[in-house]
Amino acid sequence: MMHKTTHFGFTDVATEDKQGMVRGVFDSVANKYDLMNDVLSFGAHRLWKHYTIATSNVKAGDKVLDIAGGTGDLARAFAMKVGDTGRVVLSDINAAMLSEGRKNLINKGVSGVDFVQLSGEQIPFANDTFDCVSIAFGLRNVTDKDQCIREMYRVLKPGGCLLILEFSKTDIALLEKFYHFYSFSVMPQLGKIIADDEASYQYLAESIRKHPDQETLKKMVLDAGFGLCEYHNLSGGIVALHKGIKT
Amino acid sequence: MQAIILERALNFLLATHPIDIQPLEGKKVHFSLQDFPLEMNFICTNNRIFVTTDAAINTDVNITLQSSVFLALFQGEDLTELLRQDKIVIHGDVKTAQLLVDLLQQVNIDLEELLSKYTGDVVAHQVGKLAKKIKSSDNPIGSIKDGITNFLIAPSRH
Ligand SMILES: C[S@@+](CC[C@H](N)C(=O)[O-])C[C@H]1O[C@@H](n2cnc3c(N)ncnc32)[C@H](O)[C@@H]1O
Questions:
Q1: Is B43 touching A (CB cutoff 8 A)?
Q2: Taking the CB of residue A121, how many other CB atoms lie within 10 A of it?
Q3: Is the CB–ligand 1 distance for residue A134 below 6 Å?
Q4: Phi, psi for residue A143 in degrees, rounded to 5
Q5: H helix intervals, chain B
Q6: For residue range B27-38, what is the model confidence (pLDDT) as tens digits?
Q7: Is A137 a pocket residue for ligand 1 (Cβ < 6 Å)?
Q8: Hey, is A178 helix, strand or coil?
Q9: Which SUPFAM superfamilies match (chain B) (predicted)?
Q10: How far apart are CA B41 and CA A194, in angstroms?
Q11: Distance CA A62, CA A3 (A)
């Protein structure tokens, strides 16, 4: 029987195997994740996340779901916005990442956040629950991205806002050259030196390359049912924020 | 970026003032400026307003106007009066347009500064001066003409 395949970085793997392999990567990077994030992005991931929060239009009393939330950067910022009357769910498929997130938020004195282990492809919440659903640097790791976007659409309230922050395509030739060199030559080496894990950072670099570009992702969001989607390129398109509205 | 600043200012206004935007719920209003590379959609949903610059969406109301009139509108100019003077074209429900304009007029934002990001400070400043003129002049049409001439010859950074 022919197996359906999908990509794991640049390698084709059986569709049913990808989730486990991605889990292996994040099990491996969990305890050094925040440090590596700061080092590899020169701290820029904080700015990209700040921008995401600023454009979220989330307000006091809102319910927010952060998918693939990992160590909880977005969840923490959302918790400040929704206040005591709101609710934030920090979720991730990976127990090790979620547990880092939980530790992080407790250490930072953040309350009012629930922690749920879940896959973005099958979200265990009722239809029309959240005012905002976010996924930062997570969608490229999900096996069935369309299914994940449909699920995010389903659990959003009418008028709710989807935020997808993800690496994307830059159309500035020089930047593209530098970025290519950096992600394939520097990133895995830094991964080796700092986290003793070259393979995981090689996968992360490759998965960025396999992720759909801005227009393709926009179409996927609209195809999932969102009445509106627009994207904002950040750092010359290295990262893009797609904002969908369930109208 | 400009849309986001406007969006944040509008929603800050909504969060800090007892303003009922229920009558606008579900409405999408499109503004396009005839003489400025700016299109903006105001999407009122889930008790908040999203501002986007995507030109491709279907809207309920389309408002076309000159940038100077746009600024004048923000600064409190009467919509009905502008309509009467043919300075603004509205396709769709005028009542919805009026409700949104009422809101925009309450936003405390330096629109001149905001527009400057689009085509360069000098142009925006000209438009801003022009808007102020419209407000104070006895002969708004005359001052618009003067202003437009100024505006057209002002250098742009594009
Ligand atoms: C690069 S991390 C991003 C973490 C965090 N959002 C951030 O921006 O720092 C990617 C996360 O996606 C999670 N993930 C991968 N596949 C997933 C899936 N199908 N559903 C939910 N989370 C998933 C991983 O466990 C990992 O924590």
A1: yes
A2: 18
A3: no
A4: -65, -55
A5: 2-16, 67-74, 79-84, 94-106, 111-119, 121-136, 140-153
A6: 999 999 888 888
A7: yes
A8: helix
A9: SCP-like
A10: 46
A11: 43
Distance CA B152, CA B126 (A): 9
Contact A158 B45 (CB under 8 A): yes
- CA–CA distance, A205 with A227 (Å, rounded to integer): 32
- The share of chain B scoring above pLDDT 90, in percent, equals 32
Percent of chain A with pLDDT over 90: 60
Q: Both tokens of residue B28? A: 């999408």
Task: Provide the shortest C-alpha distance from residue B4 to chain A (in Å).
Answer: 6
Report ipTM for this prediction: 0.84
Q: Over chain B, what is the mean pLDDT?
A: 74
Average pLDDT, chain A: 92
CA distance to partner chain B, nearest, from residue A151 (Å): 19
**pLDDT score of B114:** 62
Domains and CATH numbers, chain A: 5-171+201-245 (3.40.50.150)
Residues of chain A with pLDDT under 70: 1-2
Distance of CA A120 to the CA centre of its chain: 10
Nearest C-alpha neighbor of A208 from the set A66, A10, A54: A10
Question: Which domains does chain B carry?
Answer: 2-106 (3.30.1050.10), 111-157 (no CATH)
Beta-carbon contacts of residue A88 (< 8 Å; ≥ 6 apart): A63, A64, A65, A66, A75, A78, A79, A82, A112, A113, A114
- Contacts of residue A73, defined as CB under 8 A and 6 or more positions apart, other chains included, come to A45, A46, A49, A136
